Amino acid sequence: METTAKTSITVDATVNAPVEKVWAYWNEPAHITKWCAASDDWHAPYADNDVRVGGTFKTTMAAKDGSFSFDFGGEYTNVEDKKLIAYKMSDGRGVTIKFEANGNQTKVTETFDAENTHSIEQQRAGWQAILDNFRKYTESN
Length: 141
Description:
The chain is α+β, with helices and mostly antiparallel strands and 141 residues long. The protein is 26% helix and 43% strand.
């Protein structure tokens, strides 16, 4: 039997907005399509989200020039309103997102199981870029 140790990667950002707004912008498809991209040449033309244990989500991430797209999705395994979301991606890797309210600021911390295709640094940079886009979008809208 083969066992492989999983590597977890954590990214975080403090959003200058109350947790109610952060939670809504994180979870509502109309908002997800506005912020879920790692760079300006990508976008999320479609999002569907059922935030409850056993619920599923799917976000289509696509190059703006139409050259490539993929669906990012999974199933929720734990949801604590305005505090925590955990899910399994369609490839079986786990993700946990914590929302820590502090008045008009909310710290968002994502921890995810690394995949084996890209380097740890590339994965961290990509997820951090998406989280930074979320922070910028939420603070400016």
